[in-house]
C-alpha cells in the first residue's frame, strides 16, 4: 500500500516510454491503444485503493488522516536536500482518483476520436506521460519533486496542443501556452525557494509545520510568488490568455488537460499549502480580486464566442476563478469540491463537444443546430453537463457552487479578506452565476435546437438511394466514456454531504435561470441569429476577450522581439566590432612598425647602438 | 596505488596519435576503426576510473601522480582526480569516443562521416591524429594539479581545435579559426600572468597545496588582481559576455565533431578553471570579484537568449545558447555557495551532453539540407524527417531546462544559490541576479520553442517534394535526380554545402533555389531512391495533394531511410539521450559526487 503512489506514477510513465519507443509495426494503433489504456486503468485502480480509506473525508471536513506513502531517499544538493517522497493524504487521494479516471476516460475516448490519425501512438504516449506527471504533482511530498511534475505537465500540454503541428496556428498556440505558463512557473519556483529556506526543508509537511514560525513578510512574498505559478497554470488573470488558444489541440486533450486536471493543479497547490495562504492576508486579497475579475470577464467572453470549444475554454477560466474565489474566501474544501465536480462535468462537456465537432466537422456553433435528434446520447449527456455548469439542482455543480458561494458570503460578512475585496468577490460571483446561465443556455440551444445547419459534413449517398439524414452517433469507444462521465457529473454533488444553505442556493438558482431565460427569450425571437446580440455594444469587446491578447503582444511580445534584433545588431557591430577593430588596429600598427624594417643596415646598427646606450644608462642610474 | 590510471588516460591517446604518424602504411585503410578503438580504450579506462574511484571520499584527490618535471623551475608533473574532475574526464572520454563512432561507424559513407571519404580530400589520418591530440589536451586539463601543467594542457587544446576548424570547417573557416585561436591565446596570456603572480607570491604551483592554503601568503589586492587575470583568461574560454564573439563564428564553421567537442568539452575547461583554481586558490579575490562575475553572467544569460531569439542560423543559435547556459554556470560559481557551485558543475556536465547532442543534430540537419539557415529550411521536419525532428525536439526541450531532464537541475541550483549567496556577498544584488536569470530561463524556452516551431512544425512545403521540371513523372524526391545535378560530386560529405551551392548555381530560378537544400541532401541518396522507384505509388496523386502530409508520409514509407537518422548517428546520439534522461531523473548520481568536493573547495571562504 505504501508503494501505491509510486506505482501509480510509474505505470503511465513507463507506458509513455513504451508507446514512444516501441517500433511502429505491425498494427501500431492497436498496440498503442493497449499500452495507453491498460496502465492508466491500473493507475486508476491504485488511486481508488488509496482513496478508499479516507473516502470524501476531506470534503466533509474531517480531521486529516495519516498520509499513505513512502520515502525513496534524498538527493543532496549541498544546501537543502530534495527528499523523494510520494504520499497520498486525504486531499491527494481525491485528486488522484479524479486525475486517473478522467485520464482513463480520455484514453478510451481517444481510441475512437483519433482512429485515423497516424500519430496516435505518440499522442497516447504523451497523454500517459501527462497522467504520470499530474500524479507526481498530486502525490509529491516535496515541493521540488512537485515542481518537476508541474513542468512536465506543461511540456505535455505543449506537445498535445501542437499535436496537429502542420497548422502553424496550432504551433503558435502551443508555444504561447508553454511560455505564458513558464513565466508564471519562474515565480512559482522562487516561491518554493522562499518557503524552503524559511522552513529549512522542501518537504511539504515540514513547510506546513513551519508556517507559524515564519514572518508575515516571508509568507506574503512566498505565497505571492506561488500565486504567479498558480495564475499561469490555472489560467487566471493576468496569465489566462493561453487557455482559449490551447483549444487548438485535439478535443480529448482539452477535456483532460485544459479543463479537468492540469489547469486545476494551481487550485490544488493552493489547497495543499493552504495554511501558508491563510496566514498571509494580502495574498488572499489579491487572489480574491483576480478571481473576481477573471470569473466575470471570462464568463462574458464565453457568452460572445462562436467556437464551441472556446466557449468551454472561457467557461473553464471562469469556473477556475470560482475555485480561486472559494480559496480566497477561506474555504479550501469548497474550492476542492467544486474542482472535483467541475473536473467531471467539464470533461463531460468537452468530450460531448468532441462528439459534436466530430459529427459536424467544424467547431463553430453557427454551423451547428438541431443536433438533438442526430446525437441523442450526446444531447442527454451534454444537457447534464450544462445543468451542472449552470448549477441547476440536482446536478453536481449545484452543490459545489453553492458551497463556494456560501464561503464567499461568509467572507463578505467578516473573515480573512478585507471588506472591499470580499464584497467585490461575492458580487462578481453572483453576477457570474447569471452570465454562466446565459452562455450555457446559448451554447445548448445553438448546438442542439433550432434548424439543422449541418449539410456539408454528410457523405454523398450512392446513386439511386434517397438522401437520408445521417443519425449515426459516434463510435462506442467515444460514447461509453461520455456516458460514464455523465454519472459523476450528475451525482457527485452528494459526495460533499449535500448540506445546503437555502438562501444562497435559491438566489443562485434564480440568477442562473434568469440568465438562461433572457437568452431563451432572445433565441425564441430569432432562432437563427446569435443570442449574443443581447450584449449590445459590449459584444465586440467580449468576443475579443477585451483585447488582452493584443495588449500583451504590443507590450511584451513585440518589444522583446525588437530587443532581440537590436541585440543581434549590437553584437555584430559593437561587441564583435570591438574585437575586429582591435585586430584591424593591430594590423595598422604593424604597418607603421614595418617602416622600420626597410633593409637599411645603417638604420639597424644605429638602433642597436641606441639600445645598448639606453641599457647602459639604465644600469648606471638604477644599479 | 592506481596512479597509472591518469597517466594511461593521457598516454593512450598520445601513443595512438604517435603510432599514426610513425606507422602510416598499415593504418591507412582502417583509420576510421583505429580512432574508434583508441578512444574506446580511453573511454574504458575512464569507466574503470569511475569504478575504482572511492565515492565515499570524493573530496580527496585520488590516483595522484606527483613527479618532478622541470626541477629547476620547481614544476611538477602532478595529476589526480576528485569529485569535481571525475565527471568531466568521463564526459570528455565519452564525447570523443562518440565523435569517432559518428565518424567511422558503418560503411563510413554516411552524411558527415569525414573519415569514410575515399578521394583523400578529407585527410582522414590527419583528422584522427588531430582528434587524439585534442583528447590528450582535454583530459590533461582536467587531470592537472599543477598550475603550469594545467596551463600547458589548456594551450595544447587550442592547436588541434584550430586545425579542426581551419581544415575541416565550412566556407568561412579561415577567419573563424584565426579569430578563435587569437582570441583564446590572448585570454590565455592574461591567465598565465595571473598564474605567475600566484607563483611569485606563494612560491608554489601545486594546486592542492594552494587550495589548502586558502590564499594565505597573498594580500587581498594581490588576490583580486590575480583572480581578475585568471578569471579573464577563463572567461574567454567559457565564454562570458562580452568576450564571447569568437564562439558563434567558430561553431558555425566548425565541422560537426568540432562543434560537439568545442561546446561539450572546451567550454567546460574555462568553467572548470574557476572551480579548480580561481575560487579555492584565491578566495578573497573571489569574494571581491563575485558580484561582477554574477552581473556579467546574468547579462550573458539574457543577452544570449535575446541573440538566439533573432538568429537565423541554427548552428549559430545553438552557439549563442551556450553563452546563456554558461551564464548560469558562472552565476552558480559567483554565488560562492555549495549549492551554487554544485549547480554550476552539474550544469557544466548537462550542457556538455545536451549541447553536444544539439550540435550533432544541427550538423545532421546541415548535412541533409545543405544549410542551417532556418528560413531556408522551411518547416515540417517532423513530416519529412520524423525521427530527426523528434531528436531535435528532445534536445531543445532538454536544453531549455525542463525538469526531469539534465538541463534543469544545474540551472535550478544556480538560482537557488543566488537566492542565498555566500557570506560577504550582497544579498539584494544576488536576488536581482536570480530574478533576471529566471526571466532568462523564460527567454531560453522562447527561442527554443520558436526554433522548433519554425523548423519542425508546419507543412514541409515544396522542399520535401521538389517537383523539378514540369511533367516529371516521379515524386519530388526522385525528380531531384533528373535535375542538372550531375556536376555535383556524389560523395563529398565535408563539402555537403558546397555541393548544394553548385546545384544552386542558377540563382534566379526560385523553384530550384528552394529545392536546393533537399536536392543537395538527396544527391547522396540518389542511388537508393532509384532502387525503390518501382514501389512508389502513383506520383501524380502525391503531387496533387501537396499540402496533405499523409501523402508525404506515404511516399516516405516507400523510400525507407532516404534521409532520416542513420546508423552512425544513432550510435553517437543514443548514449547522450540516455545520459540526459538518467541525470535528469536521478540528479543525485552527479550531485553526490560533487558535493563533498565542493564543500572542501569552499572551505577557504568561511
Structure description:
The complex is a heterodimer of chains A (623) and B (606). Chain A has 623 residues and is an all-alpha fold. Among the domains of chain A are: 329-459 and 472-538, no CATH class; 552-622, no CATH class. Chain A is 71% helix and 2% strand. Chain A has helices spanning 4-21, 28-52, 90-113, 120-139, 143-161, 168-199, 204-210, 216-233, 242-245, 251-260, 265-272, 274-278, 281-304, 308-328, 332-360, 376-390, 396-412, 419-448, 476-491, 502-525, 539-543, 548-594, 601-622; strands spanning 68-75, 82-88. A two-stranded antiparallel sheet of chain A has the order 1-2. In chain A, helix 15 packs antiparallel against helix 19 (476-491). The longest helix of chain A is centred in the last third of the chain and has 47 residues, at 548-594. Chain A starts with a helix and ends with a helix. The model of chain A is unreliable at 460-471 (pLDDT under 50). Chain B folds into two domains: 4-455 and 567-605, no CATH class; 476-558, no CATH class. In chain B, 70% of the residues lie in helices and 3% in strands. In chain B, strand 1 and strand 2 (75-81) form a beta hairpin. A two-stranded antiparallel ribbon of chain B has the order 1-2. Chain B has 606 residues and is mostly helical. Chains A and B meet through strand 1, helix 5, helix 6 and helix 22 of A and helix 8, helix 13, helix 15, helix 19 and helix 20 of B.
Give structural attributes.
heterodimer; A: 623 residues; mainly alpha; two-stranded antiparallel ribbon; globular; B: 606 residues; 2 strands; 3% strand
Quick structural gist:
The complex is a heterodimer of chains A (about 625) and B (about 600). With about 625 residues, chain A is an all-alpha fold. Chain A is built from 23 helices and 2 strands.
Low-pLDDT runs of chain A: 460-471
| Approximate helicity band of chain A | over 70%
Provide the succession of SSEs of chain A: HHEEHHHHHHHHHHHHHHHHHHHHH
Protein structure class of chain B: mainly alpha
| Most strands sheet of chain A | 2 strands, antiparallel
The stretches of 5 or more residues of chain B where confidence is low (pLDDT under 50) are 462-562
Give the helix proportion of chain B (percent range). Answer: 55-70%
Amino acid at each position: 500500500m505504501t508503494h501505491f503512489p509510486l506505482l501509480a506514477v510509474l505505470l503511465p510513465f513507463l507506458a509513455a516510454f513504451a508507446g514512444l519507443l516501441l517500433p511502429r509495426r505491425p498494427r501500431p494503433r492497436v498496440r498503442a491503444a493497449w499500452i495507453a489504456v491498460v496502465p492508466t486503468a491500473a493507475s486508476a485502480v491504485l488511486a481508488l485503493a488509496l482513496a478508499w480509506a479516507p473516502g470524501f473525508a476531506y470534503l466533509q471536513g474531517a480531521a486529516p488522516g495519516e498520509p499513505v506513502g513512502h520515502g525513496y531517499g534524498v538527493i543532496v544538493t549541498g544546501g537543502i536536500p530534495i527528499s523523494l517522497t510520494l504520499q497520498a493524504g486525504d486531499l491527494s487521494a481525491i485528486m488522484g482518483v479524479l486525475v486517473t479516471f478522467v485520464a482513463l476516460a480520455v484514453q478510451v475516448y481517444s481510441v475512437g476520436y483519433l482512429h485515423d490519425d497516424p500519430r496516435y501512438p505518440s499522442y497516447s504516449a504523451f497523454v500517459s506521460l501527462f497522467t504520470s506527471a499530474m500524479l507526481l504533482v498530486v502525490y509529491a511530498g516535496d515541493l521540488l519533486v512537485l515542481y518537476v511534475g508541474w513542468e512536465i505537465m506543461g511540456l505535455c500540454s505543449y506537445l498535445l496542443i501542437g499535436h496537429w503541428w502542420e497548422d502553424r496556428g496550432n504551433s503558435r498556440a502551443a508555444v504561447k501556452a508553454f511560455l505564458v505558463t513558464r513565466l508564471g512557473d519562474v515565480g512559482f519556483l522562487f516561491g518554493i525557494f522562499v518557503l524552503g529556506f524559511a522552513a529549512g526543508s522542501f518537504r511539504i509537511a515540514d513547510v506546513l509545520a513551519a508556517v507559524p514560525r515564519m514572518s508575515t513578510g516571508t509568507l506574503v512574498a512566498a505565497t505571492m510568488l506561488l500565486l504567479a505559478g498558480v495564475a499561469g497554470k490555472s489560467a487566471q488573470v493576468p496569465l489566462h490568455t493561453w487557455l482559449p488558444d490551447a483549444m487548438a489541440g485535439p478535443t480529448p486533450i482539452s477535456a483532460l488537460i485544459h479543463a479537468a486536471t492540469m489547469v486545476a493543479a494551481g487550485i490544488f497547490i493552493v489547497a495543499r499549502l493552504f495554511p501558508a495562504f491563510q496566514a498571509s492576508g494580502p495574498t488572499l486579497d489579491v487572489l480574491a480580486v483576480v478571481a473576481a475579475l477573471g470569473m466575470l470577464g471570462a464568463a462574458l467572453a464565453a457568452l460572445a464566442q462562436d467556437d464551441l470549444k472556446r466557449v468551454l475554454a472561457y467557461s473553464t477560466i471562469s469556473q477556475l476563478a470560482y475555485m480561486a474565489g472559494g480559496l480566497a474566501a477561506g474555504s479550501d474544501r469548497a474550492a476542492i469540491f467544486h474542482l472535483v465536480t467541475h473536473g467531471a462535468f467539464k470533461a463531460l462537456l468537452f468530450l460531448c463537444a468532441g462528439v459534436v465537432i466530430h459529427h459536424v466537422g467544424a467547431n463553430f456553433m453557427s454551423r451547428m443546430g438541431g443536433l438533438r435528434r442526430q446525437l441523442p446520447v450526446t444531447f442527454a449527456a451534454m444537457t447534464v453537463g450544462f445543468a451542472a455548469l449552470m448549477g441547476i439542482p440536482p446536478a453536481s455543480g449545484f452543490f459545489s457552487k453553492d458551497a463556494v458561494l456560501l464561503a464567499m458570503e461568509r467572507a463578505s460578512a467578516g473573515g480573512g479578506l478585507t471588506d472591499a475585496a470580499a464584497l467585490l468577490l461575492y458580487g462578481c460571483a453572483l453576477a457570474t452565476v447569471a452570465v454562466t446561465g446565459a452562455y450555457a443556455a446559448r451554447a445548448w440551444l445553438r448546438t442542439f435546437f433550432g434548424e439543422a445547419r449541418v449539410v456539408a459534413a454528410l457523405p454523398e449517398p450512392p446513386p439511386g438511394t434517397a438522401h437520408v439524414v445521417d443519425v449515426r452517433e459516434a463510435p462506442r469507444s467515444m460514447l461509453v466514456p461520455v456516458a460514464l462521465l455523465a454519472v459523476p457529473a450528475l451525482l457527485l454533488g452528494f459526495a460533499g454531504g449535500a448540506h445546503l444553505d437555502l438562501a444562497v442556493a435559491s438566489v443562485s438558482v434564480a440568477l442562473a435561470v434568469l440568465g438562461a431565460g433572457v437568452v431563451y427569450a432572445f433565441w425564441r425571437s430569432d432562432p437563427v441569429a446569435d443570442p449574443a446580440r443581447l450584449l449590445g455594444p459590449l459584444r465586440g469587446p467580449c468576443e475579443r476577450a477585451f483585447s488582452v491578447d493584443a495588449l500583451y503582444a504590443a507590450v511584451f511580445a513585440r518589444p522583446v522581439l525588437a530587443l532581440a534584433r537590436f541585440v543581434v545588431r549590437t553584437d555584430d557591430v559593437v561587441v564583435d566590432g570591438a574585437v575586429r577593430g582591435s585586430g584591424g588596429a593591430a594590423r595598422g600598427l604593424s604597418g607603421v612598425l614595418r617602416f622600420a624594417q626597410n633593409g637599411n643596415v645603417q638604420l639597424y646598427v644605429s638602433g642597436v647602438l641606441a639600445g645598448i646606450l639606453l641599457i647602459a644608462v639604465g644600469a648606471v642610474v638604477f644599479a | 596505488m592506481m596512479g597509472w590510471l591518469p597517466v594511461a588516460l593521457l598516454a593512450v591517446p598520445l601513443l595512438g596519435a604517435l603510432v599514426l604518424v610513425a606507422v602510416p602504411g598499415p593504418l591507412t585503410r582502417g583509420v576510421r576503426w583505429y580512432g574508434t578503438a583508441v578512444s574506446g580504450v580511453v573511454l574504458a579506462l575512464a569507466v574503470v576510473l569511475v569504478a575504482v574511484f572511492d565515492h565515499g571520499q570524493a573530496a580527496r584527490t585520488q590516483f595522484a601522480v606527483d613527479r618532478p618535471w622541470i626541477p629547476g623551475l620547481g614544476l611538477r608533473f602532478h595529476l589526480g582526480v576528485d569529485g569535481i574532475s571525475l565527471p568531466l574526464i568521463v564526459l570528455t572520454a565519452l564525447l570523443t569516443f562518440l565523435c569517432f563512432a559518428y565518424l567511422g561507424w558503418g560503411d563510413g559513407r554516411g552524411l558527415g562521416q569525414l573519415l569514410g571519404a575515399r578521394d583523400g580530400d578529407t585527410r582522414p589520418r590527419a583528422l584522427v591524429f588531430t582528434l587524439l591530440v585534442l583528447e590528450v589536451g582535454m583530459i590533461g586539463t582536467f587531470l592537472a594539479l599543477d598550475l603550469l601543467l594545467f596551463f600547458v594542457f589548456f594551450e595544447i587544446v587550442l592547436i588541434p581545435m584550430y586545425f579542426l576548424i581551419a581544415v575541416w570547417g565550412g566556407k568561412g573557416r579561415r577567419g573563424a579559426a584565426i579569430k578563435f585561436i587569437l582570441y583564446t591565446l590572448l585570454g590565455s596570456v592574461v591567465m598565465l600572468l595571473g598564474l605567475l603572480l600566484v607563483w611569485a607570491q606563494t612560491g608554489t604551483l601545486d594546486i592542492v597545496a594552494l587550495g589548502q592554503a586558502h590564499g594565505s601568503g597573498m594580500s587581498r589586492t594581490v588576490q583580486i588582481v590575480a583572480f581578475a587575470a585568471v578569471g579573464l583568461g577563463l572567461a574567454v574560454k567559457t565564454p562570458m559576455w562580452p568576450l564571447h564573439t569568437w564562439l558563434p563564428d567558430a561553431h558555425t564553421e566548425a565541422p560537426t565533431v568540432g562543434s560537439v567537442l568545442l561546446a561539450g568539452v572546451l567550454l567546460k575547461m574555462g568553467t572548470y578553471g574557476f572551480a579548480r583554481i580561481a575560487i579555492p586558490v584565491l578566495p578573497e579575490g573571489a569574494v571581491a570579484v563575485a558580484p561582477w562575475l554574477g552581473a556579467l553572467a546574468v547579462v550573458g544569460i539574457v543577452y544570449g537568449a535575446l541573440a538566439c531569439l533573432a538568429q537565423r542560423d541554427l548552428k549559430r543559435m545553438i552557439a549563442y545558447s551556450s553563452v546563456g547556459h554558461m551564464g548560469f554556470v558562472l552565476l552558480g560559481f559567483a554565488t560562492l555557495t555549495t549549492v551554487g557551485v554544485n549547480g554550476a558543475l552539474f550544469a557544466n556536465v548537462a550542457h556538455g551532453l545536451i549541447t553536444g547532442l544539439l550540435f550533432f543534430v544541427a550538423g545532421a540537419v546541415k548535412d541533409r539540407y545543405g544549410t542551417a539557415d532556418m528560413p531556408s529550411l522551411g518547416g515540417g521536419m517532423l513530416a519529412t524527417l520524423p525521427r530527426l525532428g523528434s531528436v531535435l525536439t528532445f534536445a531543445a526541450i532538454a536544453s531549455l531546462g525542463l525538469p526531469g531532464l539534465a538541463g534543469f537541475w544545474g540551472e535550478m541550483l544556480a538560482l537557488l544559490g543566488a537566492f542565498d549567496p555566500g557570506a560577504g556577498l550582497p544579498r539584494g544584488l544576488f536576488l536581482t541576479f536570480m530574478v533576471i536569470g529566471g526571466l532568462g530561463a523564460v527567454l531560453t524556452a522562447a527561442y527554443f520553442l520558436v526554433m522548433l516551431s519554425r523548423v519542425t512544425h508546419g507543412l514541409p512545403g515544396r522542399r520535401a517534394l521538389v517537383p523539378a521540371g514540369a511533367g516529371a513523372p516521379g515524386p519530388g524526391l526522385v525528380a531531384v535526380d533528373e535535375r542538372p545535378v550531375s556536376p555535383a560530386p556524389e560523395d563529398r560529405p565535408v563539402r555537403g554545402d558546397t555541393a548544394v551551392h553548385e546545384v544552386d548555381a542558377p540563382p534566379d530560378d526560385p523553384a530550384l533555389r528552394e529545392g536546393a537544400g533537399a536536392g543537395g541532401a538527396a544527391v547522396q541518396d540518389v542511388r537508393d531512391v532509384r532502387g525503390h522507384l518501382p514501389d512508389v505509388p502513383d506520383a501524380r496523386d502525391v503531387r496533387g495533394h501537396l499540402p496533405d502530409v499523409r501523402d508525404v508520409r506515404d511516399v516516405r514509407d516507400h523510400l525507407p531511410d532516404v534521409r532520416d537518422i542513420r546508423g552512425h548517428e544513432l550510435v553517437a546520439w543514443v548514449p547522450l539521450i540516455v545520459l540526459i534522461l538518467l541525470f535528469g531523473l536521478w540528479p543525485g548520481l552527479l550531485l553526490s559526487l560533487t558535493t563533498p568536493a565542493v564543500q572542501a573547495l569552499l572551505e577557504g571562504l568561511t
